[in-house]
Amino acid sequence: MNEEPLHSRDRATPLRVLSRSDLADLPITPAAVVRAVEDAYLAFAAGESDNPRKLSVADPRGWSVAYAMLGRDGRRRVVAMKTSYKFDPDHDRSTKRYYTTITLYDDTTGAPIAMMDCARVGALRTPAVSALLVRETMRPGARRVLLIGTGTQGRNALPHLLAAAPQLRELMVYGTHTEGLAAVRSMLAAHDPHAVLETVSDPRAAAATADVVLATAGPGTEVALESADLAPGSVAVLVGYGLAPSTLIDADRVVATSAEQMRLTGTDMAGPDGTLRGVDAELPQILSRRAVGRRTDDERVFVYNSGLVLTDVAVAHALAERAIAEGRGTEVPLWD
What we know:
- By secondary structure, the chain is an alpha/beta fold.
- Helices cover 31% and strands 23% of the residues.
- The protein contains 10 helices and 15 strands.
- The chain has helices at 20-24, 30-45, 119-137, 152-164, 178-191, 203-207, 246-249, 259-265, 283-287, 309-325; strands at residues 15-18, 55-58, 64-73, 78-87, 97-106, 112-117, 144-148, 170-174, 197-199, 212-215, 235-238, 253-256, 281-282, 301-304, 330-332.
- It starts with 14 loop residues before the first strand and ends with a strand.
């Protein structure tokens, strides 16, 4: 089906609804995702885009939490609203419900672009951000990577990392789920069939040899690498779980996607006195060359990966363009 270009849509255009199944197998390369995310950060650093602080509400009993995030991408001329809602009364995976969506509007014509399930957006955006963080903070000559965790983020981590830093060829993974380990291997092979991945049984011993540690494990992990486990000159990226607070407290340098987001969501990494160490540099400033990710080859860098909605907007827009071009989704005349 031939679809009209996004920029030709006007205010009378129906809203395109893109479901999880519409987006699940939509082709997009890790390199394209990394480019979209980097461009979003550069636009933000240049003052061309807006990323206000998120809003949240939570049930006082801890049953649920919801977030709303608004962003304006000045380069793509797209405005978006992302929402997420988690219902988890029993803190049990079998009963937890999690819904996240993003709605895009064309800020040149005023037309709605799409309302989308955001699961795949997050699954792609986060590892792309990690890849950029590693590229900007790893020491020269870095080659060896340890991935901790085999969930959604772990499965997507290595293809995006290699898209941004192809010199990282010595790859290790630690995980406790057979299916997850197989999925990490399958995802990597699909994007880089010549990559070699070693499964390790001792994450601490592996970390001592790694230039890069990607901690993407879930909250149930028993792994919490201490600063003493990390090699001199290494970079440790916290995406989920797998690093102890000492990796932040003892780091020679701290980098984050957003210092404000780290203050809000990184409280479990605070020191014994309850103080959370500050950030030395943020990714948008590093990418725009207003700050440096690393000062010396031997310093250990701690990196905190938290989301900015502008990166969700960039990836969602890239997926929406491809989905609409292929005629996917359902048009809904919501405002008729």
